Each structure stands twice: as structure tokens, then as C-alpha cells.
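Limitations
The C-alpha cells in this dataset are predictions for the assembled complex, not deposited experimental models. Users should treat interface geometry with appropriate caution, especially where small molecules or nucleic acid strands are included. An illustrative entry is reproduced here so readers can see what is and is not provided.
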Amino acid sequence: MTPQLRPVAPPHVLTIAGSDSGGGAGIQADIKTASALGCYGSSVITALTAQNTLGVQGVHVVPPEFVVEQLKSLFADDLVPSAAKLGMLASPETITALGAYLASLTSRPYLVLDPVMISTSGHELLAHSAADALLSDLLPLVDLVTPNIPEAGVLMGTRPSPTTLEDVIALARELHPALKGPALLLKGGHLPVSRDAVVKFIEKEKIEAVWLAPPPIAVIADYREVIGLPEEKPDVVVDVLLDGGITLFVGPCVDTSSTHGTGCTLSAALASCYALEASMANGDKAGAPRRISHDAVRRAIKYTQTAIATAPKLGRGHGPLNHGHCAMQRVIPAPSIHDPTPFTSYLIANASEWDAYVKHPFVIALGKGTLSHEAFAHYIAQDYHYLRHYARAHAAGAAKADDMATIRALADIALHVAKESEMHVEFCASFGITRAALEALPEAATTSAYGRYVLDVALSGDILDVLVAVLSCLIGYGEVGLWLRKQVAAGEAVLEGNPYRRWMEDYAGDDFIGAVRRGIATLEERVVREMPSAPKVERLVQIFAESTRLEKAFWQMGLDQSW
Amino acid sequence: MTPQLRPVAPPHVLTIAGSDSGGGAGIQADIKTASALGCYGSSVITALTAQNTLGVQGVHVVPPEFVVEQLKSLFADDLVPSAAKLGMLASPETITALGAYLASLTSRPYLVLDPVMISTSGHELLAHSAADALLSDLLPLVDLVTPNIPEAGVLMGTRPSPTTLEDVIALARELHPALKGPALLLKGGHLPVSRDAVVKFIEKEKIEAVWLAPPPIAVIADYREVIGLPEEKPDVVVDVLLDGGITLFVGPCVDTSSTHGTGCTLSAALASCYALEASMANGDKAGAPRRISHDAVRRAIKYTQTAIATAPKLGRGHGPLNHGHCAMQRVIPAPSIHDPTPFTSYLIANASEWDAYVKHPFVIALGKGTLSHEAFAHYIAQDYHYLRHYARAHAAGAAKADDMATIRALADIALHVAKESEMHVEFCASFGITRAALEALPEAATTSAYGRYVLDVALSGDILDVLVAVLSCLIGYGEVGLWLRKQVAAGEAVLEGNPYRRWMEDYAGDDFIGAVRRGIATLEERVVREMPSAPKVERLVQIFAESTRLEKAFWQMGLDQSW
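Predicted assembly:
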């Protein structure tokens, strides 16, 4: 039941590329991409650029030997990546040095090469003459290569100008064998084609297609119109994968200037999605198949497309993508050996009345044995009524559960509470209040307020809401029990001759504290599983704070003997 | 009601620092930090290191003029950061060049300086002699400086060896005026002190303290023990902020080797938290106060501490932090002009029976007017019974809502459905089924299955569950209505003389399609507000897929006239 406390290392993805001072492309885009997809990102820098959304203003090429030195630090049996992408490689000398080093490795990471030759803004980032070095020294080592149409031309020594999907596929089929090894993903972003043309072509040629552009939905088209958006374009962009077979990835055509670093992002996403799959398949050990699945390709393209579609306008030229679109705020970190109960701690830290509740004057007087019989009798009789609602709240939770384990756990607590209430009956009997008189007693306002608040949450909320609504009572009484035991040890409370000794021993006893432990473990485990979002955590904090406030009021009601 | 479709640009945070090929420190840690905290990260690189968790194997210093060139690209009225952190500055010449450039700016970003002199692994990253350049050329321009204890010594030209909290505070008080301007955050990580000592000291000296280390909680201590963790250390680490006043930030003492890049991460987090606050205060415009709030400092320290505490073991030496601890997977991206209904689209894309539902043979025959009267009569009578449950589900949703707007919206739909059912009564009357006969008709199994499924979700789930459970019926009928209208236009369906013309016109009519639009907008808006986590989205997808499957079965029941 206890959640995993030792975090699992994420897959490690390396980028070998240039640095973009503007942060939108190069190793910066790659590290943002790897992080967003849940990988650990590292980088070997081949060149620095002084760059912004308008263009590249300067390049500082890193000496090839220092590129290799960076690689050596990583592969020195320390931070060995399971996948790497290669981007801007700056010079033929760097390509040759890289090729020699990568060829010397006994176990190469999965390699994705984005043949970056021209920046989105039009700057030549690699001399065309370097294509020879790429083809001879690097491509034979690479697993996947991702040129766009102009880059495919450079690799082939031609200037292709395809105008139809047929042309693009013919280009891919011509280029692939020339690469001598890697799978080819030819990116069709430069040539949008009509959806109908793609549908017809696929049917005619019997080619497999993965659709990322959703089919037209009439109610959504109507909604777009009503909120004032133009009709969705009937055009799509097609990326062609040749990996033995041929597969088309058909995405929506997004009209935007936020495309700076698109190629970097896609290749980093491909390396990351490969690494994630490999790590799931065999726990990141060597021997993963060196073939990227179509699902990983689909995820990488989808990630990149959403990053383009949700990008805010930044800069005056081609703005960067929104790399963080697939992340949202996680309020409660994973449990760790340093903090095994992050959610419980968070709730307590955000309940301003917690201390006033667990160290209430009622509790202190009870521990010293100086609490008046009348106050205790009033409290215990009202607590009997409260427990009825408390049991019902658990039963309501059980009624909402969708698995037998939860039904059993909550039904068990409802039963436990019903039994616990018998202790209250006995206490009341010792004060001369019969069971009939106890049952006939009206609820004090605070009892109704608290009992029915917990029940309302149980009826209107989900299981997590229920577990949190009942938590303050559960762990607060445990805290009081354990604290009073410490107070006894410190001479600040007494057991000998204390009329409330049984109460004190019950709530510090193994039975009750065992329930507290199970309650904390159940809750922490459920939070790890359900990952409540920030607004949901906010609601849970409110529920816990409110029930803590009402717990404090409950002691006060006892002390004041108020109705 | 429509969610924001044009994303707001995040605050921009620049790092001016070295590159760590291992990805755990330097600009890589800074970019990971800025991204994790929701900022846009860019970087000006001062030096490249070949580095891993065991040490720094090589350094390539970037020429100072190229450092300035990178800065110029950013500040060329393109991607101007609102805050920047300065880390490893490599050489006195770079410091002087940076100082001159930053001094020349008419509007400087908020500057946090982490005086990086020695790496966690012990490598000297800046000659001690460069301290003079820092003090004369850079510190007067800086807003906040964050040395640890040894670095404070280098800045003062001494070798302090504080042993108590008093010593550390005395050190901070001596260093602060020598810096000539910036606020000082002296990091006490090198000297853990006892919690009790801090409590006593604060009380005695009347110093403000922000506690990040939670107070001891008895039930949590008990829980730690039960799951086999050692007792929590009574030691804390204290960071001292001098910014006019003095404030202590008291954090837990985490025993771990995952501390590579801690200083980088904290200073990047401070710059990010400042930028986030400034952007909220004045929409990122100039004129934000150049003073970091204590809440921003608290958030930055907390972020860094959690990154240390939740780090997986990576590498053989001092491993990197877990920069992504405060992010979790966001399945549904923000609505954008390119995709204003991401949640609705996602549900439909993941309901495998969607097409079989909206283009069911029942619907096609109805559109052509060839559907038998008996089939339609059976369907419409059962739909009357279904609508009762459908109305109740909305009422149950209203009963769970915690705001008047939602109560009103759901109660309104319940009312609408009750009215819609009168159309069914009239249809049945036209087939010779009286109201009494209709009411007396038993529910077919599919009617019970579907109606009570929706009701169960409404009773056991939360508002989002309710909205999704009723969605398939709402938007599916709209889709059928609009599709049949298109089919009529294409000659594939007929209105003239079609006995079901009224039905077809009702579901393509303004009244019903208006409800569809409101339903989509309400749902999309609620998803943006509640940000359902991945497990929650998974549950919502299941609900939508199940109700879509049951809708399809409902048409089939009509066609088969089955019970």
C-alpha cells in the first residue's frame, strides 16, 4: 500500500547540436522537449549562435576536439544516454570527429539525425559541401534521419520541387537507399496538400496512414463559426516514414509564424519518445530494438504540432514553440524517503487551525485530568451523534467506489466507527446517561455543522474528497493521543488517577494508531495514483482546513457545554 | 464562457552562465528550472564544460566579445528578458565585458548573481582573483546575490568557518555592505543547525523566519518509523536574506548525494519566481519593483529543496536534481485558435464507436424516410423513458454543484429535457400510443442500461463526470442533425414527405444546436479551470466512450424493436 519512495531514473536523452541564445531552437529546444516529455536531457554543444527570432547574428564554432571531450565525459560510464539526437553539426571536421567517436562506442545510443542546414530564418547553418561528410561518416551510424524537402535535396545533390503527395513519396523512395542504413522521415511541412487528395491516394495505393489531423466534426465546425474562427483548412501536412515499409503521418496544417526550432523539437521528441518506449520495454537496459515504433513517431509529431499550435507570440520574427504544453503544475511532489507523506504534510501545513485543534485547552485539561465531568459528558454525548454521520460518510464513499478494495476499506471503517460508538455509550452510562437518553439528545449546532459538512462532501464529492473530509478527525485524534502520551512522559499530563485515562489510552493505542497509519498510506497512495491537479488540491485543502476548524469548534463546544 | 484562445506569453528568464554537458548544472539546469516554473528560458553561454557527476574534465571559455554578441541578439528589441541570472562567468574579462554591456542598457532586467567559483565536485570554475572584477564591475548592477559560505569568504577575502547560526548571521551582516547594492541571500547549506537552536535564536533576537521545514507531527513520525525510515533529522539549513531587513528561511536538511547544480538551480528559480510575480503584478511591463518578495524567495528555495529531495540516483558522483518535480502530464492542451475545442475533440477521437453511433443505419434510414414506423415508434417511446433518467442526471449534477451558475445551468437543462419529452408524447400520440400507455410501457434493457449508467455516473462522480456522461447524447444528436442536413443537401437524405422531418429539423434547429454550443463551451471552460490530471482524463474518456457505445446500442434497439 505504501507508495514507491525511491524515484526511478528517467530515460536519458542527449542532444548534440548548436546553442540558440534565444532559447527557441538548438540544444535549448531539445532540453525543453526532453524535459517536457519526461526524459533527462543532456547536451554536447557543437557551436554557439547569437540568434533571435529574426535571424542568426553570429556563430562561434566549438573546436571538434572539445565536442569529443564533452562526449567522453558523458560516456565515461557515468551519464550514458539511451538515445541521442544530432542537430546543427557546424563543420565537416566536427562531423568526421563525431562519426569516429560514435563508431568507437561498443554500445551506441539510438541516433536521430536532423540534417540542419538552414535555419527557419534562412541562415545557412552547415555548408552544402558538408553533405558528403554526413553521408560518408555519420549516416551509416544513424538510426533515423529527418530531413525536410530542401534538406532532402541537399543530401541528394538536387533541388527537388515536388508539387503533389506522389512527388514527395517518390522523393523519399529515391533518397532512402542513398542514406545507406537509417530509416527516413521526410517532413512534408513545406508542401501542404488537400485532405481529400490524401484519402484518395491512400485508398488507391494501399499505403498505411496515421491520422493526427482529426476528421471533420459538424458540431465542432459549427462551434468554430459561432466563436468567430475561420473555417478549418482542408489542407494537411504529410510526413513520410520509410523504415522497410512506408507510412504516412497526416497532421493538421497550422497557419502561424511560431515555427522557430520546429525541426530541432521534432528530432528531440523522436529521440525522447524512442527512449521512453525502450525504457518501458526493458527498464533502459541494453538490447532494446533499434527501431522506433509508429506510435512513438506519432507521439513525437503530435507533441511538436501541439507545441506549434499553442505557442504564444514571442519576438518579432519566427517565434519559438510552446514546449511546455504537455505539462501542468504538480502541487504534491512524489513521496520520497525524505518526505514519505507529502500530501498529508501539505494538508496540515495549509490548515491554519491545526495547532489550535490538536493542542486545544479541552485536550490539555483532559490530559491533566482537570476537565470537568460535565464538559466531558457533553462532548462525549455529542461525539456519539457525530459518529453516526461519520459512519454514514464512509458508507457513502463505499457506495461511490468503483473497485472492491475501496468498497471493503470504507465499509470496514464504517463498521469500526459503529463499534467505537459503543465506547461512548459506556462512558455516558458511567455519567448516568442511559442509551435511550443519549439517543434522544438533540444535536448541538456544532455537531450538526460538522457531521453534516462531512456528509455533504461525501455525497457531492469523489472518493478523494471523502477520504480528506474524514481525515482531520482520524489523524487529529491520533495526534492528540500520541501528543498526550508524550505529555505524560514529560510530566505535563497524567495517566494515574486520570478519569479520562481510558480515552487517552484508546486514541494512543495500537488499534486506533493502526487505523491512522492505514489512513495516511491509503491517502498518499491514492494521491500518487490520481495525481490531483492544482485546482483539485486547492479544493482538498479547503475541505481539510474546514473540517479542522470544525474539529476545534467541537472541543470548544464541549468546554463551553454549548448547544 | 469561451476560454481564452490566444495564449499569454510566459515571463522570460535569461541565464548567463556556463554549459554543463552532463545537463545537471549550468544553463541546462537553469533552462530546466525556468521551464518547470512556467517561464520562457533563454541563455547566453560564457563557457562550455566537459563535465559529469564526478567532476569537470575540461573547460572551453567563450570569447568575451561573443558573450556580448549573444546578449545583443536578445536585447535587440526582440526577446527581452524580465529577469536574468548570472552563474559561471569564466574570466575577469568576461565579467568586465558583461558589466559594461549591462550598464549600457536603458532598462536592465532584474539580476540575480550566483557567484559560482567552485563546482559541487570541487573544480575551480572562476579564479579567486576574479572576485575583484565581480565587486567592481558587476555587483553594483545586480539586485540579488546568492553566495554560499565559502563563496562569501572569497568575496570578503577571508576564509570564514562559522560554527553557529550567530556566526552565519554575523558573516552576512559583514558581507552585505561590502557588496554595495544588491540584496544578499547567504546560503547556509554548508552548516546544518539544530531546529531548537533556530527557534531559541529567533525568539531571542526577534528575527523574522519563514519555515519551510515542517514542524514535527507525531502521526507522521510514527508513520516514518512503521515504514522503516530513520527518524527525521532535528537539523535544518538556514538561508539568511539581508534586503534592508533580515529574514531567515529555514529548510529541512536533506541527506543525499544528488546536489549537482543546486546553486545554479536556486538562482535560476529566484530569477523565475521574481519574473512570475512581476508579470502578475503588471503584465510584464517595465516599472516592476526591483525587490524580490519573501514569498518568491520561499517558493524558489522550496522548489530547489524538493528537486533535491525527489531526485533519482543518476551517475556515479553528485547526481543532478529532479527539476521536473513540479510538473505532471497535461493531456488536454490549452484551447487555441487552431483548436478551440481540444477536450471535445479528444473525447471523440478516443470513442471508437463514435462513427458507428452518428452514422448508424437507423439514422441513415430515418434521413431517407425509409425507417419503419414501428422501429421509430419503439425508439421514440424508449427515448421518452431514457429522458427521465437524463433529466434526473442533470438534477443530480445540480445537487452537487457548489456555485449558483452551475446549479442554474444544470437545472435549466433538466427543465429543457422535461419539455423536450413532450415532443415524444406527441410523436407517440400520432402513432396511437396514449400518454398513459407510454408511461406504462416497460423500459427495454438498453434503455435501463444507458439511462441508469448516466445516472450512476451523476450520483457517484463529480460535476465534470456528469457533464461528460450527458455529452454523448447532446453533441451526438447535434452531429446527427447537422449531418442529415448536409445529407439532404447532397441528395442522400430527404425532407420533403419524410415522416421524420420534424425530428430532423428539431435536432438541426437553432434551439438544439444552441444547447450543443453551450454544452461544448461549458465543458471546455470547465476543463481549462479544473485541469483534470491524466488519470482523471482517462476516466472521462471511459465515460464518454461507454455512453457513446450505449447510444449506438439505443439506435440498434430501435431498429431491432428489441426489449
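Some entries come with short summary sentences. For this one: The two ends of chain B are 42 Å apart (CA to CA).
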